[in-house]
Amino acid sequence: MDTGESVRITLRSIRAHKLRSALTVVGVVIGIASVITFATFGASVEAEIVGDIETSNAGNIYVFGTPSGDDDFDRTLQPVFTEHDIQELEGIAGVQAVLPRGIVQTQSVQHGNQTLARQQVTATRPASFTPGVLVEGRSFETDEEAVVVNERMAGSFSENLTAGERLTMTMPDGSERNVTVVGVVNGTRGEVPVSEFARQPRVYVPIDPFYESVVESPSAGVRQRAYPQVTLVVDPREIPETQSAIQTYLTGASDARSLSADDTELVARSGNDFVEEISDVIERITRFVTGIAVIALVVGAIGIANVMLVSVTERTREIGIMKAVGARNRDVMQVFLVEAALLGTIGSLLGVPLGLLVGYGATRYAEVTFSLAPLWMALAVGVGVLVGVVAGLYPAWRAARVDPIDALRHE
Amino acid sequence: MTEGEPLIAVQSVRVAVSESANTTVRVDGVSKQYDLGGTVTALDDVSLDLSAGSYTAVMGPSGSGKSTLLNLIGGLDTPSSGQVVVNGQDVSAASEAERADIRGTEVGFVFQTFNLMPRLSAVENVALPLVFDDWDRARRRERARSLLSEVGLGDRTDHVPSELSGGQRQRVAIARALSTDPALILADEPTGNVDTETGAQILDLFDDLHAAGNTFLLVTHERHVAERAERIVHVEDGHIQSVEDVSGGEH
């Protein structure tokens, strides 16, 4: 029988039971919309975070030590990279800049008559501040009693910090150091890639004269400054080669190797490695949450199956009539499958825009840029139709097997 | 379609038909048992021939097996033993799909309760057998309209059954039965659900259609309805009791 006619018969049947059909469709709409919402939101968050990292950190390689089997970069705070290591790293082909970072302990930071306790103070080189990250002022210079703050730090005081103002840092031994804020930045060159919204308030100081963590360098035989983390800015065209040369140095002759516990792994990771890892994590979360949303879709499918079974029972006599006038079993099956598929399709078509709308609302709420997940959308529509067909299979099969004599007697 | 009996069986049927080309229906030693807890014999070794263009009534009390006979000839059911051949096709040996095709193209049903699709218009109801016979839509509608005019419902084509009177519904059903130009029209108590006057009109329409060359088999328990036919087959307890010739009767 031609599909047009089965669609026509189906539409009449759906129209005859508007409320029932509408409620069934609502079940599918909710299922499809939840899948689309979560998939879209996940894709948006991923695009936002990955976009942040990719734009600022393409040519960065991060060097740190980490306990074996644990790739988590925030457990890396043993100062094992000595000045000797820094010099050796600077000598590797493809390396454009080496930016060591150390942590300076402070009791508090004071501006005007406001004091903030336990602020993060990072010691680094002036090269960390490129014109691209400077919001105002300039970078500090080596040996200067000056600091640079990031925007979150500048905003931490009731009166915003601006370049030229004074800060007082109270050191762990109680001594005070008065410094001038020479610049405000919105990030640093070579910082560990974090997203904008994960950024902490920070004060940056020059290594000289603030950073004092020293160890005896096994190679140089003298006490030198040592840093827990180093970022290398490398030629973006030679990232893989440079990365492997750095890795070779770290695991071979470096001071860091001798100074680290045996189970600590020294790793050189590129920005891309981080991007991949973060994408992977977000994708896994998205898949998990979307998987939960699929439950709603299954419930929708059960709704279709339920309504179709009722429909088969109600229309037993019609099935008998169709069979009496020449319908084969597969014609009867077709009529009911088309009805189920149509309910699924209508549900998908309504569910996709609803899901996108809710997903858009969620991205606005979370303040991330809205990105589409076209694959998930196509999948959701496909699944919606499929759900209808699968849910309709058993009822349609039941319909096809109705005995025409009994059916014609059916009231 | 592809499954079914070996070719030889089909060929033997064709041979049988060519021997008596004038026979539209041949029922040969047909029995039908139902298994309803115990075995119930609805028909027991019944044989009956309907020639092309004939008009036969089957009479009997309820439970006599007359409806079973009609269902077997119409391909709605299969006999437990014996053979039913309709227009050269062995219904008793046909697959389910083949029987569906026979129901659609060789046989037209007219039921006591009309059995129209409630949400389809008159023209769509009449066209329904043509849907399953794979006619295209334009041809279907054209055929259905002309049949509805033939039964006097040319102005009611787009009404759904609930907007039609009982007599009109039965006319739609008759038009539907004619749509595929079947070899045989099977009518099961066609006047059972309408008043006497309307019933008479329906039977008049049958007479006209019979005169136009259609073959009728009509099941009824009313004598005056049965008398419209050329002969009356009396069925009781699953057996044919007698065949009464009433041709050239009062009509």
From TrEMBL, chain A:
InterPro entries: ABC3_permease_C, MacB_PCD, Macrolide_Exporter_MacB. GO terms for molecular function: transmembrane transporter activity. The keyword Cell membrane applies. Pfam families: FtsX (PF02687), MacB_PCD (PF12704). GO terms for cellular component: plasma membrane. The keyword Lyase does not apply. It is a multi-pass membrane protein. Residues 21-247 form the MacB-like periplasmic core domain. Residues 292-404 form the ABC3 transporter permease C-terminal domain. It is found in: Cell membrane. Keywords: Cell membrane, Membrane, Transmembrane, Transmembrane helix. Belongs to the ABC-4 integral membrane protein family. This is ABC transporter permease. It comes from Haloarcula sebkhae.
TrEMBL record, chain B:
Residues 25-251 form the ABC transporter domain. GO terms for molecular function: ATP binding; ATP hydrolysis activity; transmembrane transporter activity. The keyword Transport applies. Keywords: ATP-binding, Nucleotide-binding, Transport. It comes from the Archaea. Transmembrane segments: none annotated. SMART domains: AAA. InterPro entries: AAA+_ATPase, ABC_transporter-like_ATP-bd, ABC_transporter-like_CS, ABC_transpr_LolD-like, MacB-like_ATP-bd, P-loop_NTPase. One of its GO terms (cellular component) is plasma membrane. This is ABC transporter ATP-binding protein. It comes from Haloarcula sebkhae. The lineage of its organism: Archaea, Methanobacteriati, Methanobacteriota, Stenosarchaea group, Halobacteria.
